[in-house]
Each structure stands twice: as C-alpha cells, then as structure tokens.
C-alpha cells in the first residue's frame, strides 16, 4: 500500500463500527442485516428469532451499566496516566468493572475501537455461544485481515485464512482444514518429530543452566521458548526443520530472522489492534514496520510451500496419514495451504509459548506437584533420554491435568469474543444482533464459586478420580473454555497439547525446576500470560 492514507472505505468501515449500538427496538437493530445476509447466514434471514423469549420484558440495551463515556473523549481518558484504569492489570480491571456495574458491562468511547459488552455470568456466556450459529463471528485482528485482503491480495488471492475471515468464506475454509488438522491421527503422526525438536530445546536449557552459578534461565527465556514453538510449528506448517534452536544462530539466518520477526509481530499486533492506534486512517510508523514483517513471513511462507509441493511424495502406495499436513492441504487447494500455513505460524507460536512458560513457572513454584508428575513420567520413561511415544502420552493423565490447570490460571485469552448473530436477552437486557460480547472466563476461573481455592495450582481438580468439592465434575460448562467453544474453537488444540505434553515431559524428566523470586506478575499484551523475566532455576537430575 503506497498511499499515505488508508482508502476511504476503510475509514468509513471503522467509523461505522465506532458508533455505539443505540438500538432500542428490533426494527432499528436490523440495520446491520445486509452485512450478515451478505455472509449468507440463513438463520438471520428468518424472522423466528427477531424477538427471542423475554425480549419485551427485558430492559433496553442503552440501560446496560458501564463506565460513562464523556463527550468527545469518551472513556479513553480513564486509561490515561493518573486515571482510574491506568496500568491496571486485566484481571483486576474486570474485577472492578464487575463490582461497579454488575454481570454485564458496556464499554464504549475508546477511539477507533468497537464498543464492547463484557459478560461475567456463565449463563449469559452459554446463551451467547449456543446462539452463535454455524458460522460464528469473531473479530480481533483487523490489521492482519487488512494486510491479507488489501495489502497483499496478490499473494493471498482472496483466501484470507481462518483467523480473521467471517461468514461463508470462513466456513468453506474451515471445513477443508478441519478434516486435516482436527484429526487425532494427524497430531499423533508428529509425536516423533516433536520429540526431536524437544531434545534440542532440552540441550539449550542444559546449556543455559550451566552458564551461570545460579543455574538460572536467562532473562529472555520466554524468547527461547518461542524458538521451540516456532521450530515445532515449522515442522507441521512447512514440513521443514527451520533450525531456530541451533546454538549460536547466525544473525542473518532465516531461523534468527523468523524469531526476531515473530516477537516484533506480536508486539505490533498488540499496538495496532489492542491499544488505540491511528493505523486505520494513516500509514503510521508501526503500521509500516508491521507490513514489512508480514511481507517477510509471506515470502518465507511462499518459499516453503513451493518447496514442499516440489518435493511432494508421488508414491501412490503411501496413505494419506503418512503425508505431511502441508502436503495434504496443498493437494486440496494450494491457496488454502498457503493461508493456513501462515495462520499456523501466527497462531501457534505465542499461544503455546506462553502456556509453556506458565506451566514451567507453576511447576517450579510447586515442588510436590512437580515431583508427582515426575513419578508418573518415570514409570513410562525409564531413562532421562527415553523418547516420548503416543502410548506414553495416552497414559499420562497427571500431565494432562497439569496442562489443563495451567490454562485455567493462565489462559492465553482472558475470554472469548463473539459478535452476536441473533437478538438475545442477557442478564435481563435486550442485546441486538451485531453486538460484540467478550465472555470474561478468566474472572470465572479465579472465582471460588466455581473452583475451590481458585488461585492455587491444583492439577488434581481435573482428575476423574478426584471426588468432592475439588472435583471439576459439577463445573458449569461455560466457565472454563481455554481453547474457545464450538465450530470456531481453536483448530490447533490437538497440536498445541501434543507440543506441550512432549515438551513438559522431557523437561520434567531431565531437570528439577525451582523459583527463587516473588510471585510473577500476569497480564495481557496481545495475549495473557507471565509478564516478568522467567528466571527459573534448572538443575540436572541424576537419573
Ligand atoms: C496452548 C495453546 C493454544 C491456546 C490456549 C489456543 C487458544 C485459542 C483460542 C481461545 C481461540 C479462539 C477460539 C474461539 O473463538 O472460540 C483460538 C483460535 C485459533 N487457534 Fe489456537 N490456541 C493455541 C494454540 C494454537 C496452535 C498451536 C495453532 C496452530 C495450528 C492455533 C491455531 C488457531 C487458529 C487458526 C484459530 C482460529 C480458528 C477460527 O477462527 O476458526 N492455536 N485458539
């Protein structure tokens, strides 16, 4: 995009979305109908749910409580230095909003951002998800969407991927990729390669531990974890070892450049899509940097997909499950393979990386839990260098409970976002279709109404054998949704769990972890997670 100013249609789109929904009657609400009809969602064409049960008795939308927006400056000023929400951590912000305004809070008046409803009641969250229809709508990364569909439509050719597109286009894409990525057999196929990648990560951890008298991981250990997730995702997305975990990576190597670019990419996404930003109307410095980085990813992606196609296995005796994910995607549609490989890299590094960081931190702080996990692993992996196999993973129930408990206390997203596609009543208020609702599940996961000792790391709560109050068996189904919900839920869930299971098994089987610092701070940048340097002490186990 060479023009200094974004095309006028973008500005108009943003302006429309900045307007708060002031609808109070069903007729006015239908103003957004054409948009959804364009997406072809038949459910929206029918009149049957125009007035859902309880609509006439519900209070109008405009009465939903929330921080009052002032003329012109809206609510933005509340987040400025000295004001009530300045630098307030996400969890605390939502605790305060819920306390002040109740289970449904409306926030508008943040420049160039859509107004949003925060839902804190699991029954409301259930209603939103159960009414999301077959093509749920989730907005979140407009900068990424704009890049693919407008800046580099030459490369993506109208196939925007699964992360940001909506409606029928999303559904068609997702139907193709689900068949390949959501299969348990697909994930299992990668156990050996994930084991290889984890071995290199273990070597690096060992080297860091020996490099200082305290046996601590470096301040930027989180980036080292990202190298491991990028290398793991590279195997799946590109069918290729990128080489990010090699010690002394050359500055100009692709691996090093990819690592640096992905760290910057997430920082920039946060600045463009989460913080107020002028990129939607101007070619800001951050926007230009962002496009440059995404261009680099596009170029690498194209190169690797072409390489994979050129080396594709033409042996007709080989079963579908012996082929790589990328090969199978490319067999169906090369454009889909290209966009999906890019999505996997964007969605698969920071997410699994932050979850791994949190898991290691919780294990380091809880030596008894760590030892219990180690005993489970030792029964399956007699030697420190025993490979992880799919049978080991099937049997390792405590390991799975550790990962679940990690995602309860440190989910990558504080909640799930949906744009409602039907009118509905939430907490006694009329909610018009077309409203963005963020279900803040993190708040529920931290509430003793739903979890006993909610702030403590207790994997036992997820074990089937656990009885009584601690057990998760009576948990409301919409309180704990770390991978989202329904047809739009995380497509990488199986792959992420596989990576984490293999990586954590190897680390805990080889090392003793401990934490010698005050409790780490958690918070949100693009994603939620630990904010402090991850200086975990790592000691080699004897056997
Ligand atoms: C622990 C790691 C991960 C967590 C906790 C996680 C969580 C999530 C969540 C909460 C969503 C939104 C779901 C919704 O709206 O209902 C999502 C979407 C998505 N995730 Fe993950 N994710 C993880 C790892 C991965 C990996 C490794 C990949 C790579 C394949 C991936 C690919 C995606 C994609 C492509 C979407 C968008 C799906 C769509 O909109 O149809 N994720 N993830």
Automatic annotation (TrEMBL):
Name by which UniProt lists this protein:
Cytochrome P450
InterPro entries in the record: CYP11_CYP27_families, Cyt_P450, Cyt_P450_CS, Cyt_P450_E_grp-I, Cyt_P450_sf
> Which domain of life does this protein belong to?
Eukaryota
Q: Which GO terms describe its molecular function?
A: heme binding; iron ion binding; monooxygenase activity; oxidoreductase activity, acting on paired donors, with incorporation or reduction of molecular oxygen
Heme listed as a keyword:
yes
**Lineage in the entry?**
Eukaryota, Metazoa, Ecdysozoa, Arthropoda, Hexapoda
What's the family?
Belongs to the cytochrome P450 family.
| Pfam assignment, any one | p450
Give the binding site residues for heme. 490
Q: What are the UniProt keywords, alphabetically? A: Heme, Iron, Metal-binding, Monooxygenase, Oxidoreductase
State the organism named in the record: Ceutorhynchus assimilis
Q: Which cofactor does it need?
A: heme
PANTHER family of this UniProt entry? CYTOCHROME P450
């Amino acid at each position: 995009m060479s023009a200094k100013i974004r095309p006028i249609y973008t500005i108009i789109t943003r302006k429309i979305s900045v307007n708060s929904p002031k609808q109070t009657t069903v007729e006015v609400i239908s103003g957004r109908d054409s948009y959804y009809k364009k997406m072809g969602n038949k459910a929206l064409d029918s009149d049957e749910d125009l007035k859902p049960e309880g609509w006439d008795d519900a209070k109008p939308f405009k009465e939903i409580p929330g921080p009052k927006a002032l003329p012109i400056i809206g609510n933005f000023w509340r987040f400025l230095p000295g004001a009530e929400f300045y630098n307030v951590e996400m969890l605390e912000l939502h605790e305060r909003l819920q306390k002040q305004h109740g289970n449904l809070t409306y926030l508008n008046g943040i420049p160039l951002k859509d107004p949003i409803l925060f839902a804190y009641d699991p029954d409301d969250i259930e209603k939103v998800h159960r009414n999301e229809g077959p093509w749920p709508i989730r907005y979140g990364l407009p900068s990424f969407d704009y890049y693919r569909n407008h800046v580099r439509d030459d490369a993506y050719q109208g196939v925007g991927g699964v992360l940001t597109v909506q409606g029928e286009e999303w559904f068609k894409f997702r139907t193709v990729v689900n068949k390949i990525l959501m299969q348990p057999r697909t994930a299992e196929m990668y156990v050996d390669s994930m084991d290889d990648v984890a071995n290199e990560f273990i070597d690096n951890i060992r080297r860091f531990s020996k490099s200082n008298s305290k046996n601590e991981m470096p301040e930027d250990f989180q980036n080292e974890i990202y190298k491991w997730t990028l290398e793991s995702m590279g195997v799946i997305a590109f069918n290729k070892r990128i080489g990010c975990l090699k010690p002394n990576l050359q500055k100009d190597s692709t691996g090093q450049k990819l690592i640096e670019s992905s760290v910057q990419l997430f920082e920039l996404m946060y600045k463009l899509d989460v913080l107020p930003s002028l990129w939607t109307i101007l070619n800001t410095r951050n926007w230009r940097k962002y496009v440059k980085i995404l261009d680099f990813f596009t170029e690498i992606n194209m190169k690797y997909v072409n390489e994979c196609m050129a080396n594709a296995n033409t042996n007709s005796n080989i079963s579908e499950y012996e082929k790589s994910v990328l090969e199978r995607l490319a067999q169906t549609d090369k454009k889909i393979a290209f966009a999906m490989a890019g999505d996997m890299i964007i969605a698969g590094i920071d997410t699994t990386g932050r979850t791994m960081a949190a898991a290691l931190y919780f294990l380091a702080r809880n030596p008894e839990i760590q030892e219990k996990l180690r005993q489970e692993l030792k029964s399956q992996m007699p030697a420190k260098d025993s490979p992880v196999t799919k049978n080991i993973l099937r049997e390792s129930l405590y390991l799975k409970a550790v990962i679940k408990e990690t995602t309860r206390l440190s989910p990558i997203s504080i909640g799930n976002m949906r744009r409602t596609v039907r009118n509905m009543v939430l907490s006694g208020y009329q909610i018009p279709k077309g409203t963005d609702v963020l279900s803040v599940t993190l708040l529920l996961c931290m509430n003793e109404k739903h979890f006993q000792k909610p702030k403590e790391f207790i994997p036992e709560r997820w074990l089937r054998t656990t009885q009584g109050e601690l057990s998760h068996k009576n948990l409301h189904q919409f309180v704990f949704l770390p991978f989202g919900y329904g047809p739009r839920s995380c497509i990488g869930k199986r792959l992420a769990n596989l990576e984490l299971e293999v990586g954590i098994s190897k680390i805990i089987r080889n090392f003793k972890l401990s934490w010698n610092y005050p409790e780490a701070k958690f918070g949100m940048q693009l994603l939620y997670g630990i904010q402090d340097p991850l200086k975990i002490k790592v000691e080699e186990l004897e056997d």
